Amino acid sequence: MEKAEIEGLWTHxxxxxxxxxxxxxxxxxxxxxxxxxxxxxxxxxxxxxxxTRLVTRTTRSVRLTxxxxxxxxxxxxxxxxxxxxxSSVRDSAGEIRGLVRLTAPVAFARQQLVPHLSAFLxxxxxxRIQLDVSDALSSLAAEGYDxxxxxxxxxxxxxxxxKLCDTTSVLVATREYLQRHGEPREPGDLTAHNCLFYxxxxxxxxxxxxxxxxxxxxxxxxxxxxxNSEALRDSALNHLGIALLPDxxxxxxxxxxxxxxxxxxxxxxxxFADEIYLIRPYSPHxxxxxxxxxxxxxxxxxxxxxxxx
Length: 309
What we know:
Layout: H1 3-7, H2 10-22, H3 25-32, H4 36-50, E1 55-57, E2 62-64, H5 66-91, E3 98-104, H6 106-123, E4 127-133, H7 140-143, E5 147-150, E6 159-166, E7 169-173, H8 175-181, E8 195-197, E9 206-211, E10 214-219, E11 224-225, H9 229-237, E12 242-246, H10 247-255, E13 260-262, E14 267-269, E15 275-281, H11 288-301
Parallel strand pairs: 3-4, 3-5, 8-11, 8-12
Antiparallel strand pairs: 1-2, 5-15, 6-15, 7-12, 7-13, 9-10, 9-14
Helix pairs in contact: 2-3, 2-4, 2-5, 3-4, 6-11
């Protein structure tokens, strides 16, 4: 194949990589801002040019063949370099604009992040944000994310990290539940209560408490466990029991009085991390839209979510 012919297929290869990333022709077309038929035609032309099948279809999605994956793998870093170079040149003009792809845990995104993103976009109308709400730990570079919110105990060494805020864990229940079942005065009293908890493997669930130099680990049991803090909060609001939540999930309900804090004098350890970070894959150039969003979110969320009541 002549060099000129190969150069004419660069856009086709890029569209193939977007199709691989998005998983469907419809999603790829939306991402590229073109019609679904245009994407299909480009992929068909590319398959004719390479002489091999690059895509296989299922009833719900498409996936690349080994040949297709080999082709996109070889060019992905080149396209990423082009994108960084373009962003650098555009940023030098001074206007804050462009697409920021962000992923964040479900509960934090819904309860705390989205309102701030809406306000940010009103301040910077030339910026677009694509938010992927998921509790899965994505490979940021491989999946094309600019930023991720991480509520975890470790930050990957291969990433740049900005501390967003501190966070704590709290025990909460409704007044109605406590009136019916009594309020625990010490951690050991929890053995007589229906505890709503975040499951961690197959081990016997237990909560660890600290107060000054004292440290206690209390085995707990309850009728409901889930890996989503919103679901735990809602079950507590329905008077089901005492729930252990990150403070960002409990904050609004504590503020309006629908939930009250239990065992205030104790600090809970080991279930949820104590810090929330923004992270991004290391690169020599950070787009101005990304750095501006980082600064904005830090300024709005750095105080954390502690409730004094």
